[in-house]
Amino acid sequence: MAAINIKTKLALASATLLASGAQAEQEQAAQLYNKWNVDVGYLHYNEPDYITVDTYMAMINGDLSDKDTIKLGLVFDTLSGATPTGALPGSESVTVSGASGNASAEGSKGGTAPFNDTRLAMDVTWGHEWQRLLKSKSGIHVSVEGDYTSVGGSLAVEMDSKDKSQTLSLGVGVASDKVSRSSEQTPSPLTESADSIMFGAGHKNTYDVMVGLTQVVNRRTVAMLNLSYSQSLGYHTDPYKVVSIADQDDAELTTVFEHRPDNRQRYIMYSKVNHELPESGHHLSLSYRLHVDSWDLNSHTFEASYSFPFEKIHKLEPFARIYHQQAASFHTRTINYSGSGTFDTVELPTYASADARLAQMLSTTIGAKFRYMTSKKGSIDFRLAYYYRDYKNAILTSDDALFFVVDLGKSFQ
Q: Mean per-residue pLDDT for 168-187?
């Protein structure tokens, strides 16, 4: 998200730094030019029978002056495969035209619809040291897909204690999203998917606040605690997802487009401890994340990793992750009806979604990262991971995925 523009960006940064004609300034700028890090990466993600994602990433960061830093990121994704619609398996009444991009899935069977899409995302972060113990970071990001556009910005301030054993962080962020089907339309919620009224694109605004504390516990241990609050207002519904109206035997009457609340509040606590073991180069990392929100989609995440030297200069890092979430208050496998009558006689809820991502879920991820040092200032990272998700009272019972990441890094110092 690729690497083709890195040399150009380096040249532009260098040209800016060398703008002055004075020899002393040229020498200083040349030194600053050398303080750059470049990373390019590739990710392949595959869910059997569902989605395949190929991601190309590039990132460059470095010093603009003795007090200013900049980071530029670029990501390009291609997505293809099939996505669950929310309908019962075997449903033939689903109409999903272009689940993304220009794909078409009219009358898709089996509760899935084929799709393909691309995404381009860019972000820029500028860091500035105001005083020895006071720093700030400000950033902007843009992400564009065939049916989704997001633009946002953030500002964070970091304040160190005099002995630099503590760092207090304060941050705010805002994002504006445009959501629609590929036709630039959104369906009327809880109306029959075969005969729905269409409206224009939906819009959503998100506001975030974060406060964090990082503490050096001792010379081998660092701990971090972040608390954040987020509120999003506007269109949260997935314009492609539907819900089956069916009896207790899953005999389907019809499908309707889903409907989610237009307000969501989230409270997040994130804690992490990094510890260096007495053995040189061995590190243990543990983290816990608690997420509580107004949709009752509450979750717990536990992560652990252990890194150690491999053949002295390389590094191996196994990791594991366990994630559990409650179902959203409006998640439902189907909308029940008596088995007789027509759609007009069905009592519809205010909100309903059969999206498995909103169901009760237990997810487990295991994997490993291997860092191969190509030189003192260059490396190649390989990461391979597998995850398995188990759902309760959902259209899907389980799914799994395998992903592979390659990242090349080079430091110019």
A: 97
